[in-house]
Design brief:
This protein is of the alpha+beta class and 137 residues long. Helices cover 37% and strands 50% of the residues. The mean pLDDT is 91.
Length: 137
């Protein structure tokens, strides 16, 4: 009985650490948008990463190019209401809101994205394999 309890507590601590790590990675994403930090995105995005925004579909290379050389300048970005949904020890989905403000070709913008991000843990490191954003406003 004690061994079972200890195993449960150890598993819960690992999940809590992973949950904290995933939430931090999501915040790293928001920060990297403002800084146009290609290095962070290269670390976060899996080689086979796929991104959907409304009706657009992009691969890893297109996302990296858009972040670094896109026409929008992001002045502020942060996450709200994030929830981590775990599917075993190496798969998780994070849902939440990404709030982004900045300037684009048609002037200033403030956007709210409802996001669903799918993360996989490989070789002890979380990477995002798929992301879907819906521009709500």
């Amino acid at each position: 009985m004690i061994a079972l309890l200890l195993a449960f507590l150890l598993t819960a601590n690992v999940q809590d650490a992973d949950t904290r790590a995933l939430l931090q990675l999501e915040d790293d994403w928001a920060s990297a948008l403002v800084k146009r930090d290609r290095v962070v995105f290269e670390r976060l995005l899996a080689d086979s990463f796929v991104y959907t925004e409304n009706d657009q579909l992009m691969d890893r290379a297109a996302v990296l190019n858009s972040v670094v050389a896109g026409s929008d300048t992001v002045a502020a970005a942060h996450n709200e209401g994030m929830v981590v949904h775990r599917y075993g020890p190496v798969t998780a989905v994070v849902t939440g809101w990404l709030i982004v403000g900045g300037r684009g070709a048609s002037g200033e913008f403030n956007r709210r994205y409802r996001f669903t991000d799918t993360w996989v843990k490989r070789a002890g490191r979380w990477q995002i394999v798929a992301a879907q954003d819906y521009v709500a406003a």
